[in-house]
Amino acid sequence: MKGYWVCIYEKIHSEDKLKEYAVKAKLAVGKFSGKFIVRGGKSRTNDGVESPRVVVVEFPDYNTAIECYDSTEYQEAHSILNNHAIRHHQVVEGI
């Protein structure tokens, strides 16, 4: 079964840092055969708190999704967001 990252941003404090993060994160995701399914774009909040950005990434399987998140490459990208964005990031198994 495929694995997914589901990332819902609560607040973005720096668009510049988000862009810097995105460049490095994209490289890490590609290394683990990840594919961006959703990356920003139009959205409508039906329940809960409105989010400025939602990202969904598909991986070949759940373990690969975890390996990518835990990788040195992704963690270097992730560190760019420190104090620049608040988000909820989950790794989930598809059906």
Concise account of the structure shown:
The chain is of the alpha+beta class and 95 residues long. Helices cover 36% and strands 33% of the residues.
Description of the structure:
36% of the residues lie in helices and 33% in strands. By secondary structure, it is α+β, with helices and mostly antiparallel strands. α1 runs antiparallel to α3. The longest helix has 17 residues, at 15-31. The mean pLDDT is 96.
The proportion of residues forming helix, as a percent range, comes to: 25-40%
Low-pLDDT segments, ≥5 res? none
DSSP, total strands: 4
Inertia-based shape: globular
Decide which structural class fits the backbone.
Answer: alpha+beta
Distance between the termini: 6 Å
Order of strands in the sheet with most strands? 2-3-1-4
Mean pLDDT score: 96
Helix tally? 3
What share of residues are in beta strands? Answer: 25-35%
How do the helices and strands follow one another from N- to C-terminus? EHEEHHE
Our Rg estimate from Cα atoms comes to 13 Å
Main pleated sheet:
4 strands, antiparallel
